[in-house]
Structures are given as structure tokens and as C-alpha cells.
Amino acid sequence: MNYLKKIKYNSPVILSFTLLSLFAVILGYLTAGLSTQLLFCVYKSSPLNPLSYIRLFTHILGHADWQHFLNNFMLILLVGPMLEEKYGSKKLLGMIVFTAFITGLINIIFFDTALLGASGIAFMLILLSSFANIKQGGIPLTLILVAAAYIGNEIINGLISQDNISQLTHIIGGICGCGLGFVMNKK
């Protein structure tokens, strides 16, 4: 019982994000995907529907299945706590909300497909992590290598793959991570 007292909720934004997404996945299974489509998936819909605006943000909580969820949150749980410690919970939450909004908005403006999942957030965090040890006036070589590897891979996959993975969301998330990294470390 003393072991439980030693467990710390060390990264409230990342852990809460993970738990909310886990709840959304479980709810999706319990409702045979209806809740996922209604609440946790962004797509073109009537601007008069209030859920259209909510889904711009909540689509990052929905996932197609357990594997999709696990792939995203293994990365998020690995990188997120370090970034939450560096930038603080409020700033990191703001970056997650911003990236969710941008990826959702671009999807409904330019595509006729539904979008769900936290992969854009995972890519944002991966690229943002390259700024962890940035020095004044310098561009980290790790940023260049990570950006080239991840974004380059997504461009290639987007050109040759015929899957249901939104490589554009990964690229947009990575661009958000780079942009937010430069803005947050400008000081």
C-alpha cells in the first residue's frame, strides 16, 4: 500500500490527455463507433451544428482502434512529460489545443475525409522536443535531423501509400512543433 503513495501524477496535461483519449476509445468500442464519429472525429459538416466546432478540438481524443491509440500514446507518454516540465502545463496545453485546431481546420477546409487521432500531437511533440536544449541563436542539428527524418518519411509515405493514415496531419503537427519551438525559445 505504501507503493501507491509514491506514485506521482507527474505530468498532468499529458496524463489527463492520455486518460481522456483512453476513455474515448473505450466509449467508441461500447457504442460501436457511434461516439467516435459523433464526438471524436472531425469532418465537413454544417456550420450550424455546434458539434462541428467541438470536434475541431476533440478529434485528437478519438482513435480507430487500440493499436492506433497505443502507437500515438507510446510516443506522447515518452516525450510529453519532459516537454511539460520544460514549458509548463499551461503552455503545453495551449500548444496541444493550437495543433488540434490547426490540423482539424485544415482537414475540413481541404479534404472530404474524416480525421481522428493524436498523431498530429505526437509529431508536434517530437519536433518540439528537438528544442529542449536549444542555445541562444543556434538551430539544433537534432531538429534538422528529426525534421528531415519524420517529415521526409511522411512526404514519401503520402506519395506512395494508399492507407488510411493522414500523413498531412503528421506533417502539420511537425510544422506546428517547429513553429512553436522557435516561438517558445525565442527568449
From TrEMBL:
UniProt keyword list: Membrane, Transmembrane, Transmembrane helix
Q: Which residues form a coiled coil?
A: none
Q: Does the keyword Glycoprotein apply?
A: no
Transmembrane domains' residue ranges: 12-40, 60-80, 92-110, 116-134, 141-160, 166-184
List where in the cell it is found. Membrane
Membrane topology, as annotated: Multi-pass membrane protein
What is the recorded name of this protein?
A: Peptidase S54, rhomboid domain
Pfam families from the UniProt entry: Rhomboid
Domain called Peptidase S54 rhomboid: residue spans: 53-184
Kindly list the GO molecular function terms attached to this UniProt entry.
serine-type endopeptidase activity
Transmembrane helix in keyword set: yes
Q: What is its main location?
A: membrane
Q: Which InterPro entries match?
A: Peptidase_S54_rhomboid_dom, Rhomboid-like_sf
Which Gene Ontology cellular component terms are annotated? membrane
Q: Which organism is it from?
A: Cellulosilyticum lentocellum (strain ATCC 49066 / DSM 5427 / NCIMB 11756 / RHM5)
